[in-house]
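Bench notes, afternoon.
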Amino acid sequence: MIGKNTGEEPERIASTSSMETRPNSIEDWPSRAWNLLSKLRDQSPLVQCITNFVSMDLMANTLLSAGASPAMIHSIEEIPDFTPHARSLCINVGTLSSDWLPAMKAAVVLANKFGKPWVLDPVAAGASGFRLNACLELVGMKPTVIRGNGSEIIALFKASLGASKGVDSSHESTDAMEAAKSLAQASGAIVAVSGAVDIITDGNRVVGAHNGVPMMQKITATGCAVTALIAAFVAVDPLHALEATASAFSIFGIAGELGMNMAKGPASLRMHLIDSLYSLDQVALLSHTKITSL
């Protein structure tokens, strides 16, 4: 699926005082999150996603409902023409194959060349040698953000073939905090760990996003969808990737909370989550955002 904005446009960095000042207290985070969501809706950044077959639909609909323009372009023949026009790139290795890996790396090379932020989702990183080595290669190509569950982040940090439960996590995000900090310091990326509390770190600072509901774990590809949303948020504020990542987590979680009020189960929650993200307003966001320093 190709989004509605395919023209190349220069990077635009916010200059308002609320965007220039890093939040030091919980009161600052809701305003920053709203400012970022407003920018996203105004700019509708083109986000290229090279992702897995399972997640394409939810990722595209998440980006559209938030206000971004998704493009599911993965053919290596199209990368040279298309990637330079995207505002950001999302790489997800969920259904990794030897045919897709060269396209992923080619897109990353161009994203780096043109100064575009890119986000890596190392799905089931420790499940096989091929998958782990591919993820380690991609980490070495300097992603802006790495987003995974606890098991995936620990596998990347240890760079060894540990026991893995498919794409599910056998570790809580808090179990992976030290691994995330070390991985962030080694890679230069913001590292984000999904869990009951989503953890985001640059290797020194650590913040937690406390939004969301447990039933979101019963919907396949919600982790992939939040990674795509992170890519959209860093597209509109690439100089503050930690804040953009934390805001994306919180906003996606808030949409889940609001959707849960109308849902009867995972299938209806999926629908209402997308609707809630689309209709999220300033009052709801300011009253629900829960991001804290850890």
